[in-house]
Amino acid sequence: MPLLTLKDSDGAFEAQLPGSLRRLRLGDLHPSMDSAGRYFLGHVLLNFPTTILGNGQMLFKAVLAEPVTGTSPPKTSAINTVFFGAVAEECGMFIRQGDLLAITGFKCSESPSASKDGRHPFQMELQEENAPTVYVYVKAQTTTFMLTEPSVPKPGYAYTPLSKLQVGTIVNVFAVVKHFKAPFRTKGTDYCSAVTIVDPSDVKLTCNIFNGNCDALPKISKIGDIVRFHRLKIQEYKTEKQGTPGAGFSSVTFDGTVGAAVMPRTSSKSFSFSYEDSTTVTALRRWASAHLPPPPSPVTLSTVQPMAYFDLTCQLVGKAEVDCCTFLLKVWDGTKCLHPHTKVRVETGALVGDEGFIYKLRNLTVDVLVFDNHARTAESLMVGCFIRINSLHVKSQTSNISEEVETPCLDFLLHGGTGYGRGITILPESNSDVLELQRTLDLKLLDLDDHMNIEEAPSCGLDGTAMEPTHKELVPMSKDPVSLPSVSLPRCQQSSATVITAHHHMNTTSLKDIQNMKAPQKYRIRAQLMEFEPQRINESIKLYCSNCQSLQDVPDEEELDMILQNRAATAVKPGLLNLALCRSSTVKRENQDGSPVVLYFLKCGRWETPQDRLLMIEGGTMQEIYQLSEKFHSVVPVTTEGKHLSFPDFSAPFLIQGKRCYYGCRRCSSLKSIQDRYVLTEKDSLDPDVISRALGIVLLQCVLVMKLTFNDGTDLLDAYLWDTSEQFFHISAAEVLSNDAVREKLQGIMKKLCPPEAKLEDHPWLECCIKSYNVKDEINSTICYQIFDTVVVEDA
């Protein structure tokens, strides 16, 4: 299939097309039309990763929009375009968002998603047998790249080139990672991510990003990644400019590989991402590939040499604690190390992982010893995850295999410290390197299956200790099997209300087969949702502590009112305190004989309006607090203890901003007196993380937890949805509590996934990725299941 590129230096795009071709408009497209001698012109509004269908055929999908004036084409002028087979393979590697295409030799058919995505009622299809041609308009690349002067206006955020940075300013930047260190713990309580970035302005900037939560740091996995930093503070350190987080700092990372899917990586619960951002990422990728040194060729276990330092991309299949500062990781990358290497012996029962799987890969895995500060990171890794071990040292030592022969034996070591970028990075499964590695591993597993049946493998003497779940209370409830009525269409022809975002290579496994398999493992299922818990949407929102991994319910407004009333009834009558930190004032309630309400206003001359102020209140009801939060930016309930102010307890929120309530962990917090907490008077201190740290409070996160019961006609299976629930629903868990529209949206989604009045055979089919894990207590061991890498189809 010819894919032809036309350059702007040779003239206008359409002027370079064959003169015999006539242009088609969106209104001309219809299944009965003949596209011979005609072409459709459109910009690539969206493009999706290339996938493989069940019949082995490759598929690539793009959304084309007719050129219109304005910043971005409206959705109604867009049409879905589907490429099949060799056409998909070639176009999927080259076509990117923003490209201008002219396509010929296509057919039109009805679009199955038109009612959901609002696009053209028909879609264009390109297959090799119809001899299609795709013309791509390539504009000449320039050596300058001004993020603040894009060809298309960018609403919302302006990005500053690194050459224009000024000390003392707070800026937004888009740049390429030139060097980075995996997150490491500082001498204090924070974690740090050190990264050096560059952009086409030919300037580099070193940034030190600090956060008490390691997961909140930038999700950088390799040199060449693209980062977007919002609200980066520019400081001077040893005569050099340096970037540090400003108030409200946020980061988003993208794979820097040319042609990879533009998938944002961030721990932020809500972030903006526009069509213009995608265009910027694509432009930075092309600039980096043309102007920066290419990354070193990846080293695999089959090519590793003694006495080398290298970065290893691999999958974790087992782990064990060796001693208090040493951890063992069993990893593989689908290739075999050609040199003898050390096998580390550990105590019986210490190795975490699937016994049969570890034995199956016994000739392909290597043992990596992780030391000192990296041991804690290694301990937290989940078996089965993909990781990159940076600056892994291969040390050669002599091993006696007989009395006469000595042979070098390799040790794989990750030394302590952070020099030369040493560390362990968890890679998302959407990462381009992981996708390539996954294909290699799948082929190797198929090859191994031809030579060995894992069920017949002899015991290797490992205990196969199961992983502990994040929450032991998440134990599935058993039910009696329910036979599934027959359906009118084969399942493979029925549209799915959910889709998987990875693992498309995996075959679908029946729920009955899954119930008979050991854990931990990953599966792809297709089933119907029989029921879900809890039925009340508000009850699905929990408060989660990342430190002690505890879950607790969110109190409703009635409970909060009762808590505050009981507190006011038992509290000593508040009195005015004259503090250096704030000034106080008493508010009398009308027609009420209760205790007075005392307001404490923080003293800070830079806060000119109430909307910028933090207010503390003693003796108020929840309704009064909500009223104040409409006027003041942040409200903190307090109580007096002698001549000091303090936070009362953890049964109610410690901070209210608008309709959003923030809670602290009772177990992990160490309360500090509010007296002399001058950090609260800083203008940049209104971020909940800053306020919680100033008060000695460990902030709880809102998470959405549900138990879904699936039925595929062979068996029932309960699976939990919690740490990926926001991605699953495209909804922020915190907004479910504070935003009525978001809560109604979630209720509507659940009604469509599991219609309350419909029979089971009328429920939509769901395609999901689930993974199993073991739950152990002192007596029993139970296998639980969790949903991951799955999202609800838009308007499903």
Number of helices: 14
Oligomeric organization of the protein chains = single chain
Summarize the amount of helix as a percent range. Answer: 10-25%
Radius of gyration, taken over Cα atoms and rounded to an integer in Å: 29 Å
Poorly predicted residue ranges? 69-75, 140-155, 399-405, 452-493
Counting helices, strands and paired strands, the structural category is alpha+beta
Gross morphology is globular
Number of strands: 40
Instruction: Provide the domain count.
Output: 5
Give the DSSP E fraction (strand runs of 2 or more residues). Answer: 25-35%
Largest β-sheet summary = 10 strands, mixed
Rounded average pLDDT: 78
Distance between the termini: 35 Å
Name its key features.
alpha+beta, single chain, 796 residues, OB fold (Dihydrolipoamide Acetyltransferase, E2P), 14 helices
Describe the structure.
This protein is an alpha+beta fold. Mean pLDDT is 78; it is low at 69-75, 140-155, 399-405 and 452-493. The strands form nine sheets. Strands 1, 2, 3, 4, 5, 6, 7, 8, 9 and 10 form a ten-stranded mixed β-sheet that branches. It has a five-stranded mixed barrel with strand order 11-13-14-16-15. Strand 25 (541-544) and strand 26 form a beta hairpin. The protein folds into five domains: 3-138, Nucleic acid-binding proteins (OB fold (Dihydrolipoamide Acetyltransferase, E2P)); 162-291, Nucleic acid-binding proteins (OB fold (Dihydrolipoamide Acetyltransferase, E2P), Beta Barrel); 309-372 and 384-391 and 426-456, OB fold (Dihydrolipoamide Acetyltransferase, E2P) (Beta Barrel), CATH 2.40.50.140; 491-539 and 704-792, OB fold (Dihydrolipoamide Acetyltransferase, E2P) (Beta Barrel); 555-699, no CATH class. Helix content is 16%, strand content 33%. The longest helix has 20 residues, at 432-451.
